Amino acid sequence: MIDVKHYDVIQSPIITEKATMGSENNQVTFKVAIDANKPAIKAAVEALFGVKVKKVNTLRQEGKVKRFRGVIGKRAEYKKAMVTLEEGHSIDVTTGV
Fold it and tell me: What is the mean pLDDT of the chain?
């Protein structure tokens, strides 16, 4: 049974050049809730995608201060999770859940 709180933990996959290079090492990168911890991220990925998670690494990306037409603004900060999967498991992030 998939719990609704798992959808609150994982917000979206991150599809960048660096994140796709991690797929060679059986890694998938997700944008997660700022207050999510590693056990919650692991449980959410295993429940939503039906895979076994080996390891979870997280980092907080601070918002950059940017200037647009002379007005100073700040990008939102977010948390990123690099999830390493067990051998033989994979996630195709280009398809929806």
Answer: 90
- Whether 96 maps to a domain, the answer reads no
Specify if 91 maps to a domain: no
pLDDT band at 90 (very low <50, low <70, confident <90, very high): confident
Phi, psi of 8 (to 5 degrees): -80, -30
Is pTM beyond 0.70? Reply is yes
How far apart, in whole angstroms, are the C-alpha atoms of residue 76 and residue 62? 7
DSSP structure string for 3-36: -THHHHHEEEE---HHHHHGGGGTEEEEEE-TT-
> How many domains does the structure of the chain reveal?
1
